[in-house]
Amino acid sequence: MGTPNPASTYNQSTDKLLSILELLCVTGQPMRLNEISSKLNFNSSTALRFLNSLERNGYVYKDLDSNKYRMTYKICGLASYVSNSAEIINIASGPIRSLSYSLGECVCLAISQSYQVVYVYVCDGPKRILQSTQRIGKIAPMHATGVGKVLLTDFSDQEIDEMIAERGLTWYTENTITSKDQLLKELQIIKKQGYGFDNQECDLGARCIALPIRDYTDHIIASMSVTGPAEAMTDDFYKVHFDEIKRTADEISARLGYQQKK
Questions:
Q1: Once rounded to an integer, what is the mean pLDDT over residues 113-137?
Q2: Exposure winner among 24, 26, 86, 187, fewest CB in 10 A?
Q3: Taking the model in full, what pTM does it have?
């Protein structure tokens, strides 16, 4: 086997598109097509192709009076996911580690992004090996996970419809919710009781209990779960440890400025 060609390990088109984004961000000023082409040493047709793609996806817009391209604030929304996640992790990591070591089980913190669950912090219990869906950075379906269903309880009807249209209600096991009516009934139960379950809905053999993490706006910005093998995550386990699990979720929410209604 020969040495791989370094050029084959990356996408040059992606590099060019990102260089345009970076140029517009760093300069902080609107720029004409010929200015962008000149600065980046691209031909005009190449630069225009990438600018059209960025415009179509909402990252730049063209001022028709000046013919200059400007950044939109969409990229700020992406940046906020990163900064908000980092803040939540810093605040939640201590209580989550304490809970994980107290219970001897895995505790996860997840957020929603693009109508999917993203696990942003995971603490292995000392006795357990994680399921594949609980690795940091792992993406999972909202309708088939405890954390995902808890996050969905804060979604509007329109957002739930958009999630279903974009991601579907994919079948994973015989326990997976696969219809909108089923999902809405489940979400009503979770709203009423304040917590949700994953009863082997995404992976056979894995169960969890999930609770909301709220911030000062009273919105659910994350969800925390205790997860493990079905033989360990029994109804008796939930009953015995529920108060401790809830105290941890409430502590994290309080650190984020949430004040429980009296």
A1: 72
A2: 26
A3: 0.69
